[in-house]
# Entry
Amino acid sequence: MEELNPITYIPEIEKLRLKTNLSVPQLALLFKMLSDLKPGIFNINSEAELLRFISANFETKQSKEEGISTDKLRILFNQPDSKAADFWEKHCYTILAEIKKFK
# Structure
């Protein structure tokens, strides 16, 4: 009977976050820019929902085990850091150059 209906132990799955080489300000600005695109690319109900998703699913260079603070993300999302803007300005030009290769 046990073979027909085995009871198996399934260990709790560790929460995996996508590890990035970005800082929190860089990650916040990336998602700010993506969320500002028109037409919108995210199907979300609120900014808070997006920030909770980022916090739960991404890890930055210096984020702790508990994840990225949604309060810190909210602040940086609405008041982007100038160094993060410099970082993305450089990389947007690189992305644009790469996209042009596909034409």
Observations:
- The mean pLDDT is 88.
- The two ends are 62 Å apart (CA to CA).
- The chain has four helices and two strands.
- The helical segments are 24-35, 47-57, 70-78, 82-100.
